[in-house]
Amino acid sequence: xxxxxxxxxxxxxxxxxxxxxxxxxxxxxxxxxxxxxxxxxxxxxxxxxxxxxxxxxxxxxxxxxxxxxxxxxxxxxxxxxxxxxxxxxxxxxxxxxxxxxxxxxxxxxxxxxxxxxxxxxxxxxxxxxxxxxxxxxxxxxxxxxxxxxxxxxxxxxxxxxxxxxxxxxxxxxxxxxxxxxxxxxxxxxxxxxxxxxxxxxxxxxxxxxxxxxxxxxxxxxxxxxxxxxxxxxxxxxxxxxxxxxxxxxxxxxxxxxxxxxxxxxxxxxxxxxxxxxxxxxxxxxxxxxxxxxxxxxxxxxxxxxxxxxxxxxxxxxxxxxxxxxxxxxxxxxxxxxxxxxxxxxxxxxxxxxxxxxxxxxxxxxxxxxxxxxxxxxxxxxxxxxxxxxxxxxxxxxxxxxxxxxxxxxxxxxxxxxxxxxxxxxxxxxxxxxxxxxxxxxxxxxxxxxxxxxxxxxxxxxxxxxxxxxxxxxxxxxxxxxxxxxxxxxxxxxxxxxxxxxxxxxxxxxxxxxxxxxxxxxxxxxxxxxxxxxxxxxxxxxxxxxxxxxxxxxxxxxxxxxxxxxxxxxxxxxxxxxxxxxxxxxxxxxxxxxxxxxxxxxxxxxxxxxxxxxxxxxxxxxxxxxxxxxxxxxxxxxxxxxxxxxxxxxxxxxxxxxxxxxxxxxxxxxxxxxxxxxxxxxxxxxxxxxxxxxxxxxxxxxxxxxxxxxxxxxxxxxxxxxxxxxxxxxxxxxxxxxxxxxxxxxxxxxxxxxxxxxxxxxxxxxxxxxxxxxxxxxxxxxxxxxxxxx
Length: 789
Description:
By secondary structure, the protein is α/β, with parallel strands linked by helices. It folds into four domains: 5-166 and 213-265, Copper homeostasis (CutC) domain (TIM Barrel, Alpha-Beta Barrel), CATH 3.20.20; 297-318 and 321-395, Elongation Factor Tu (Ef-tu), domain 3 (Beta Barrel), CATH 2.40.30; 416-517; 538-683 and 728-785, TIM Barrel (Alpha-Beta Barrel), CATH 3.20.20.60. 26% of the residues lie in helices and 24% in strands. The strands form four sheets. Strands 8, 9, 24, 25, 26, 27, 28, 29, 30, 31, 32, 33, 34 and 35 form a 14-stranded mixed β-sheet that branches. It has an eight-stranded parallel beta barrel with strand order 1-2-3-4-5-6-7-11, surrounded by five helices. Helix 2 packs across helix 14 (495-517).
């Protein structure tokens, strides 16, 4: 059994100290830019340097998130920033951007790369690619099942999220905040539209359909430690210090007890921010949250609520008893009522309560307990009958004491071992220290005092007294395992001189530890290759309707996606018929694979491809797993370095996250404009999810508070689902401009559309010839947006 690394979220220097004291093995934090939590306090470069010094002194590793998509104009500045991080000595950087990996390997090859969960690395093909690119660790999607993780083969370290908020969409594949609020999750500014209420078109009920409960794998730590998982990650760089202290200390205790098979209580985890807990796809489960905010620990149900008294039947498994000053949340259907306990509550038995004897009991391990709470005038009136409501303990005052203890102690998960040697040389005190870090590296330092030992006039200072002074740690995270005394105790020196050399030694050792990690900055001379240009225009069309293939004309490429049905026979026959239909057509037929494809589906797709090849039917592939011929916009291409990294691809579609100025920057710097394509019309995929709905969603769609309608469709595997935008992207008014700056390849996404949508091909063909007619577009696509453009 290997105990995994415990990785803590850190949003400020205060949080860093708490994470260290609570027992984190490592921390992840962000600078002021390029991090996926832009609204956290975050760190300046100087603060990162101080954080790294402090963490390394405590044998805690520091990973810095540089995990946003990088725009073309940011390449030089992000390279300089990475160079600063390298010089500071951070242990690794987390990245999402493909081009950034190329740049690090080229200019900063010694800087360790961890692939962020936003890479959406859900299958072996992507794992293999990242490993070939010198990535040392990959953070797997939260949607991966335990069995899928177990089957991965790699020399890279694997990291999983074990606790904290869950996104409804695969991370890195969500565009909802970007398109609906102008704030991109891939740029660190997610507005969390998933935490709002929606309704399904086949129901009048509003619910948190897109808001999962929070992840908690606390009870699965033993199983995790038996897998090839190197690190468990806690989410929450924007959470409170109470959250950080309780969650990290709870997981540290549980990890420490794994080898002894001891079980630790989980109730404290429920008392810091959570929306309720789920074991997520790791255990192949999913639960929807019942509210967007903190829920707390479920303690029981209201059995009686009369006048100013509330009686709560406590669940038998609950050990935490509410007290005066604690907070409660009472929930019934869509109603909730929050209150603070203002008087000492009474805990009695159900039998006593039924007999109207409110007798306080002392043994809280008894079953059938009833909690009696008095409401006072200050509590607001409820507009619903509380009887039958579920009760949650949301705030526990006694936890504050534990948080304070963690906050104020000076500790670390693993302390460095220190051997001290004291001697007198030429009558001056001399102190040597040899410090062995958790990674087995050693540092040495020595100090010579500036005041001499003297022949004592009244009394000498003995060796025991000096050793006692040297044993004081001054809040340094060292463990003194040996003190060698080469002194006979016959001389005198003021105690303050001994304290002085001890402090100087400890400071010197700390500085030597810092030097172990620091590096000299690299010289970076960023240059771009000469540009190749073509003015040959082309139009591509996406479809998943085989009947449309015979009608499509006037396009260079058709990207064909198989409709939901993962039967091998269906897929083979579908593609075989598609090839036959398009054989005499003037377009190239390209098979579009699903953007999310776990290994079970990949096996099927490869099998289908093998059968077709034996039939002599060869198709180019559109896929985002770094092994395709054509790249979809889900690859999140936002700079030319990402384009250059994918040299084997014939054509890459740029990310719809880009704005007008970004398109300008990319085309100006792109080596070959024939290698890139822009989606100019179609319904954008806002979310790709593995969680689905418990309700029937056949022919259903999602509706928000403004009555915007979002179509829902299953993907090929029928396990994943895609939520599309309520409006079609339409850049027809920008075609002349895009052509004028050098773009030549354009595409229309007609998947899940009726046959009239095909008429847009003619409209856009005319537009490419200079004849723009927005009114013709609106005939077939009445609701449009320019999106991020």
